[in-house]
Please model this.
Amino acid sequence: MSIFRTIQSKYTTNLMSEYRTNLNGLSFAQIGSLFSLVKGNLNYANRFDKALVEKAEQYRLAIDSLNASEVPLVGHRVKVITSNGKVYENAIIDRIDNEGGVHICMNGSAFMYPLSGDLRDLSFSISGGYFSPAPASKLSPLGRTDGRFWFFGERACANGGIYITHPIKRWLLDDSKGELGFY
Model:
């Protein structure tokens, strides 16, 4: 059974028209992606259209290329276990320093933008909780987790951000003995 058969037709039509969607030229899969974008971004101030769906798909592909790495990269998630028992399930690697250490943001948000206009040349602006360094050698692979990312849709403006959730590589940092100072 199709996902669209499980969603009431009237609700879908109302939602799509209320949130300024344009279905012209979209494939069936892209309509599904568009519906997910609308559903997850109800306060978005601009149009939901094919260009936005394609932009979201390009960002997802860029995130997939990060997942191919065998070493920690900016944007990857980290499960941090602290000496006081606190666990940060989805801390974010903010940067890699010249000595091979990683800087981790607890409870962060990851804004994505292309450095050169090419989405494959992806950069992040990480903000949120406290930041702390750690040796990359202390990280061990932990599979993948759903990461939340955002980017500006049509342009930078109030309520112009689009949020997507996509699988991203995850690492484990066990500081339960307090050697690294995570709290």
In short: DSSP finds four helices and eight strands in the chain. The first strand starts at residue 77 and ends at 81. Confidence is low (pLDDT under 50) at residues 1-8. Residues 3-174 form one domain.
